[in-house]
Design brief:
Length: 137
């Protein structure tokens, strides 16, 4: 399975934001320090999260980021896909006519890994940010 640090860090940062925002914005510096994620990496992630309308920014000396939606309305899958990440358990492309590994047929374990990918995506689609922050999972 392939889920890079980009997806994991985005979820961590969003959980931190949801846990630490009250009515005021949370700075990326604070998230960086609490989660041990580089500030420049967070800036890249939050740029994507903002363009997907999961967060909004506030300028000024007390600026930072706020969630743009209620935490219960932000699914973990939304966060992962917002940063251009995908859960991938297969090397081949589903729509490919070549099958697995460039052959004309699917490999013997193709359906196993395909089902796993579907289960993982379904799980991330059912869990929301509120569940994660309140440790309901």
């Amino acid at each position: 399975m392939k889920l890079t640090s980009k997806g994991r860090y985005a979820v961590m940062a969003m959980a931190d934001l949801a846990s630490n925002q009250s009515s005021k914005p949370v700075s990326l510096v604070d998230i960086s320090l609490r989660q041990n994620i580089s500030l420049s990496y967070l800036e890249q992630l939050f740029s994507k999260l903002k363009s997907e309308k999961l967060v909004k920014s506030a300028r000024g000396s007390h600026g930072g980021y706020l969630l743009d939606k209620n935490p219960k309305d932000i699914k973990i899958l939304n966060i992962i896909t917002a940063v251009d990440e995908e859960i991938k358990t297969l090397k081949c492309k589903r729509e490919s006519k070549k099958g697995c590994n460039g052959k004309n047929t699917k490999c013997i374990t193709h359906n196993l890994w395909d089902d796993l990918e579907n289960h993982i995506n379904s799980f991330f689609d059912k869990v929301n940010l509120e569940d994660l922050v309140e440790k309901k999972i």
